[in-house]
Each structure stands twice: as C-alpha cells, then as structure tokens.
Request: fold
Amino acid sequence: MSITKYSKHLLTASRYSRSSLRLPSPVDTPPPSRTASTTAMSLSNTAKTLKTPFVGAFQMLSDPILTEHYANLGFGAVLIDQQHGLLDERTAFECVQRLEKFPSCFSIIRVCDNTTALISRALDAGACGIIAPMINNVDDAKRLVEQCRYAPVGKRSWGPTRALITDAGTEQANNYVKVFAMIETAEAIKNLDSILDLEGLDGAFVGPSDLSISLGVAPSGSPTDPTVVAAIKKVLKGCQARGKLSLLYCGDKERARASLAEGWSGVFPGADIGWMMAAAKEFADVIKN
Reply:
C-alpha cells in the first residue's frame, strides 16, 4: 500500500475536525520564549491545553512517524495506546516526544493498568494526559488521580526524566496534566456519580465495546442497544453537569460526527490499525473488481 494512499485516508478521517481545530501557521504564531535550560520544542508540552471539541487519533501501530503525521493532519490529540496497541514503552515515549513540536496536538497515553509504575513513567516521559482502563469505583479513580498529581493533592513521586527539561514545577505539572477514568463496565456506570465527583479527575473516556460486553451485549464501537446507549449518555450528562471532559471511542466517522453534535468534548473515530486495513483492502480487492 502506498504511503500517499494511507495519508489520504487519514486526511479524510480528520477533515471534518478542521473547523474547530486549527494548526497555527508560522506567520501568526509568535516564537516561544527560551531560558537557559529549555528549548522551543520542549516548552510546547507544558504550554499545551486540550482544546475542545476535538477529533483524536487512536494510535495502536508502533511507529512514531505516524504520530507526527496525525498531528500534522490536524488531530487535536493522539491517544497512544499501551493497553491493546502494539507499542512498547520506549516507542510510546518516543511518540510523546515527537508531538512536542506540535503545539495544537495533545499527547495522551492509555496505560495498560492503573498502577504507579506505568503511570509515573509515562508522565515522567512527558505525556500530557493519562487514561487508565477499568476504573470501576471511586477508590480506583482516587488511586489514578493520586499517581498523576504531586502533593498536596496527590502522591506522584518526583523524578521527571524527559519532563525535567521543561523546568515545570509540581504546581505547573498538576495543572497541565489531564487525568481520565475509563468507564467501560456496568459497575462503573453504577458508581459513576462518585467517580466523576472526585476532585482532580478531569474527565471520563468511554470504551463502548467493553461496556457493551459488561452489559450483556455483543461488543461494538458504535452500539445501538438501548441499554448501552443509555449508559453512554449517562456518562456524557454526568461530565457536562460537572464541567468535566467527555471522551468517546467511536466505531466510525458518522458516529463521531453525531457524538460531537451531542456535545462530547472529544471523539476517536476508530483506531489507526483499522484505518490501515480499510485502505489496504481496496488494493487487495483489485483482482476481485
């Protein structure tokens, strides 16, 4: 498959986000300030804000070059997936670093477990946001938040390796890092209010496939079962009522468009491995056509 064809496919997936997500041009963007111990590129991560609404790229393929292309195409965030994706830790961290030069693209790592080791290392490597899977109750959510925040609001240990180059102190780090609880079980829906009420949690990310399974329905990225749809809407309304960010994985572009219209803060229309397979299938089908 040609790289040109794949790039065009990604451009199609992100084009409808351009109206709300605009990459600054060199003409109208002033150069960032420098200090003796920081560089223009390293400043971008601590200065970033997650602008909403946005369309995000869900990266499962382990190549940092793809990360750069997603940012350049105009995606508002790249979710670097260490839970189900094919990225080892070193590759995931390099993906984060490649986003430093894109001030309008937010780096989020989905760790594979809600543990101190995984979360602290991702943040020390410079990630702007963390998503932890299977947050089922307020204790799970509290454990997540504590590992993402320095004292007095959390228990994060000091040791920012890549992040150290930015000169960000504990207060600044507490402010710019975004923390998301993944809501994907019936138990999490039952405990949703207490999870979302937790101070320091910036929002929720809904995984519709696991949520469907937990509710006794076949997995789907764009579920239509009334019970699952109602649970997903409950998360949206809960986030909106508290002024928190609501993120949703969507199975396709149409569902992503509809979700943005419903008021979701950010949507992820499929994953890049699916985009690649869809583009490659056109070539595989040449002989059939």
Q: What stands out?
A: The longest helix spans residues 226-242.
